[in-house]
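Here is a protein:
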Amino acid sequence: MQINNTSFPYGQQGLQRSQDRLDQASQKVASASTQTLGQNNTQTNTGYGSAIQDGLIKAKSSELEAKANANVINASDKTIGRLIDITV
């Protein structure tokens, strides 16, 4: 009997995509903060935060996506374990 577990690869792919998005968001925050440091104080107050805030929001979103994908992997693992217990 062959047991196919199709949700596990989707969880892995989602986890990898979440990591990639987190890397991009981190780079966005880092580049925005270095650009902000290069500006003088009057310009910093008017434009500060939008790129950094956007990066931080994307980072938090990536974290939540990663947790959801980890739950998919965990559920997949539990399901396959139960199937094996039943068939053995």
User: Anything to note?
Assistant: Residues 50-87 form the longest helix (38 residues). The chain has three helices and no strands.
